[in-house]
Write a structure and sequence with these properties.
heterodimer; A: mainly alpha; MetI-like fold; 2 domains; 15 helices; elongated; B: mainly alpha
Chain lengths: 334, 306
């Protein structure tokens, strides 16, 4: 329990650090006032209101009217307060579920996220399922005849697969399956579950193949270790078939590292899904955030980033805790 | 237990910048059959890297087309004798563009990882040598940085600062601080206990001298392998950003060429426009990964478990 409390404290600290980093990056590096009101933010309002600069309202930017807008925006977004104070208010809003509204179409950011997030999650689930489904038979086949031709070929293949950037992998798949052979739709089709899953095959494969390569390398090593055990000899002596031995006796005790890395790579998928959504036009969170960056829609950027980063931290935390229950040795070191 | 850190396996994987935070699992499936030799593959990889760096560095003086000259060939010429890698929709020579694209990709990779080594290495050395409060603060900073999905962090910075070459290098440099720093810290922890460090201290050496003269050379050895792997990660990350249209607005890299060539119509009429930059990037990342992996095994830094 002390371990859990310790971890929880670390979780809270990291969440605070991550949100502060996100908020700080946009507010210190960027100009929040400019993001709200646009170019009239540069008007020297103190001078205008004090009458030092002639009021040129109605002609160009820089009049009293603009200054009123700027002042109102300053008040509304609490830009007249110190940064830590604003961070506290902002964090309070976030915790209550208020992410602000989009600059461009006035939609609540919360609604945008609620609409986009499920697609990103679906993509990640499809990718993980594909990774596991491909890697297990692949690893078993490779370990069954370790260091023979198939094993060597698959080591080379998986090493190569890990050197293909995911966006390149996505484009290669897109080229063959969408442009050349037209097996899959070029955009996300949201008509029914079947269409949704069909649209997810290529994006899932793009993310799933490198996962499968990682899992295969890992599982193969563990399978080879397990194959050295005496009970395998025993099973063989009893005359069980090789297939039965591999899948029923050897596979289960070898899954340990795979389970761990499975959790960790789920967190890693977040960055990948961001890219892949843009290749296959999936209207998920990753696409939304990239579009928002390009259109300078800061509330969407900040909201999505906070959701993504929180998801990332929470997944890592969960894996960490689950892992410590499977393997109590970790608790001492942690 | 030393911090576990994995960069090699993840290069080109899903989140190129994601480094797992949890300690205590054997991710690297080390191939032990090769033993303590660098092997031919290592030298082939290094050879490719030397070629690509040389060609990229000498690009302005090579007898190749101007990469921005539209109408150098016809529109969408197939690869052939006149234009080795074909031309793009504007008739620009893809061979020349692939070489010029390497300049940006490699520069970003090199500058970012150099910054990571300088800053992360220094912080890691300080954390590992002084321990105590300094260690706790620095380690938490590393942990917080690693808790942010890398690509998302980069998006955030670019959203705020725009996407010039300087910003992209800086962002990816900041992202490489934590992984490098953790390894430097782990290595320092190991070496700081050794006799030669104690001897130096007994002889009255200052902290600075011990860190620079005794620890740094030893810590640099495992970091050289990490630098190669990290450069691969950074090149992929820059590519991903460029593909999203968020990198180096003042020039073009392989990633941006891939973006330009990946419109469905361009892809249908001229797949070579994306395939050559993809190929160049693939070979470079593969070479960096392989050379880094071999170097890591050769140096046998498994006691540091990265």
């Amino acid at each position: 329990m002390r371990f859990l409390a310790h971890r929880l404290a670390a979780l809270v600290a990291v969440l605070l650090a991550v949100t502060a980093l996100a908020f700080g990056a946009l507010n210190i590096l960027g100009d929040p006032l400019f993001n709200v009101v646009g170019f009239i933010a540069s008007v020297d309002c103190d001078a205008v209101l004090a009458g030092e600069i002639e009021d040129i309202s109605g002609q160009t930017a820089g009049g009293r009217g603009d200054c009123e807008i700027v002042e109102a925006a300053r008040k509304e977004h609490r830009l007249d307060r110190a940064l830590p104070v604003r961070y506290t208010y902002w964090l309070g809003d976030i915790v209550r579920g208020d992410f602000g509204t989009s600059f461009k179409n006035e939609m609540p950011v919360r609604q945008v996220i609620a609409e986009k997030l499920p697609k990103t999650v679906l993509l990640m689930v499809v990718a993980e399922v594909m990774g596991v489904v491909i890697s297990i038979p692949w690893a078993v086949a490779a370990a069954y005849r370790a260091n023979r031709r198939f094993d060597r070929a698959s080591t080379v293949t998986s090493f190569g697969m890990l050197a293909i950037p995911n966006f390149a992998m996505g484009i290669i798949l897109f080229y063959f399956f969408v442009v050349r052979w037209q097996v899959f739709p070029s955009r996300f089709e949201d008509t029914d579950l079947f269409a949704r899953l069909k649209s997810m095959v290529l994006p899932g494969l793009t993310l799933g193949l490198p996962l499968a390569a990682t899992y295969q390398r890992l599982l193969r090593t563990d399978l080879i270790t397990t194959l050295q055990e005496d009970f395998v000899q025993m099973a063989r002596a009893k005359g069980m078939s090789d297939r039965w031995i591999m899948f029923r006796h050897v596979l289960r005790p070898s899954l340990f590292s795979l389970v761990t890395v499975f959790g960790l790579s789920t967190a890693g998928l977040i960055g990948g899904s961001l890219v892949v959504e843009n290749i296959f036009s999936i209207p998920g969170l990753g696409r939304a955030v990239v579009e928002a960056v390009i259109r300078d829609d800061f509330p969407i950027v900040l909201g999505s980033v906070v959701v993504i980063a929180t998801g990332f931290v929470v997944i890592n935390f969960t894996v960490d805790v689950v892992y410590s229950f499977i393997d109590p040795r970790v608790r001492r070191d942690g | 237990m030393a911090d576990r850190l994995d960069l090699g396996e993840s290069a080109g994987g899903n989140d190129p910048l994601h480094v797992p935070v949890v300690e205590g699992y054997p991710m690297a499936a080390l191939d032990t059959t090769l033993g303590r030799r660098l092997g031919a593959g290592f030298w082939v990889s290094v050879g490719w890297l030397v070629v690509i760096v040389t060609v990229a560095a000498l690009a302005p003086w090579l007898p190749i087309a101007d990469p921005n000259e539209t109408g150098y060939g016809g529109r969408m010429d197939r690869p052939g004798w006149a234009t080795w890698f074909g031309t793009d929709t504007n008739g620009r020579d893809m061979f020349s563009r692939t070489i010029w694209g390497a300049r940006v990709s490699l520069t970003v990779g090199f500058v970012a990882i150099a910054a990571g080594l300088a800053i992360g290495g220094t912080l890691g050395l300080i954390a590992g040598y002084f321990r105590g409060t300094a260690d706790r603060v620095i380690s938490f900073a590393f942990f917080a940085l690693l808790s942010f999905p890398g690509l998302v962090f980069a998006l955030l910075i670019i959203a705020a600062l725009g996407s010039s070459l300087k910003v992209v290098c800086m962002t990816l440099g900041v992202l490489s601080i934590a992984p490098v720093g953790r390894l430097a810290r782990a290595a320092t922890l190991v070496f700081a206990e050794r006799e030669f460090v104690q001897a130096s201290r007994v002889l009255g050496a200052t902290h600075t001298r011990i860190m620079l003269r005794e620890l740094l050379p030893n810590v640099l050895i495992p970091m050289s392998a990490l630098a190669l792997l990290g450069m691969a990660v950074t090149i992929v990350a820059e590519g991903a950003l460029a593909y999203l249209g968020l990198s180096v607005s003042d020039g073009f890299s392989w990633g941006k060429m891939i973006l330009l060539g990946s419109a469905p119509r361009t892809l249908r009429d001229g797949p070579w426009v994306v395939m050559f930059p993809i190929g160049a990037m693939f070979l470079t990342v593969l070479a960096l990964n392989y050379a880094g992996d071999r170097l890591r095994q050769y140096l046998d830094v498994r006691e540091l478990a990265f």
